[in-house]
Amino acid sequence: MHSTKPDGDRRREPRIWRDHDWFVMRPLREAIIKLLDDHAKLQPGERVIDFGCGDRPYAPLIAERGATYVACDIDGDVDVKIVPGKPLALPDNSADGIVSFQVLEHVWDLDLYIGDCLRVLKPGGWLLLSTHGSWLYHPHPTDFRRWTRDGLHDELQSRGFTVEETISIAGPLAWTTLFRLIGFNQVMKNLPVVGPIAKIPVTLAMNLRMLIEDRITPPEIRDTNASVYVTLSRKPR
Questions:
Q1: What CATH number is attached to the domain comprising 185?
Q2: Measured distance CA(16)–CA(99) in Å, rounded
């Protein structure tokens, strides 16, 4: 299995004093584990495709469960190269599961991407997908969309999937603080010596503030106004 890259390790194991996106990355990992174990019920020997793997932050979670991990992306050290505008070079009905982490907002042709997920999955196979509700513009190399909870469900269901579970991460009180912290970190990057020192206490304080803000946010507001949505959907048998 391919090893993760440095930013993949950081995303999987963020630090409250160091990382501006700690408040999203920490619960995202927890949500992925919950959906893998409670809904996908990932078993040893199953085959999981990472459709847009990037730094492969969650590949170790799949390996820990004894599954075969297949890395797919447009470049880098991958098992299957993604060719824009073309289906994945994988057979129909050949995967038990597909994971897609923070990829969908960068995809222009949703019919091709989601349709290819449906094609590659075995009947009854699952798609574990995370993407943004509210977030700042971040081209990599493009950035096209944001979703509401209902809109994301409709995107998946209208293309043949059945949505089983959705977990919302970071409600509006928390993500407004998060966006300010992202801006602060960008400013600190441009300040040699002082910047790295000042970043630590401010990052810690604002991450702690987000914990409080999200706790006092009513669930019905957080769940429909989240920064990130994590879904587990299934291909009909």
A1: 3.40.50.150
A2: 26
Could you tell me if residue 1 is inside a domain? no
Taking only the tens place, the pLDDT of each residue in 163-178 is 999 999 999 999 999 9
Tally the domains of the chain. 1
Torsions phi, psi for 113 (to 5 deg): -65, -55
Q: pTM above 0.90?
A: yes
Cβ of 92: how many Cβ atoms within 10 Å? Answer: 11
Considering only residues 62 and 1, tell me which one the structure prediction assigns the higher pLDDT. 62
Q: Provide the domain limits for residue 15.
A: 6-234
Q: Residue 70 and residue 49: Cα distance in Å, rounded?
A: 5
Mean confidence (pLDDT) of the chain: 95
pLDDT band for position 2 (50/70/90)? low
Helices 194-216 and 22-35, packing angle to 10 deg: 50
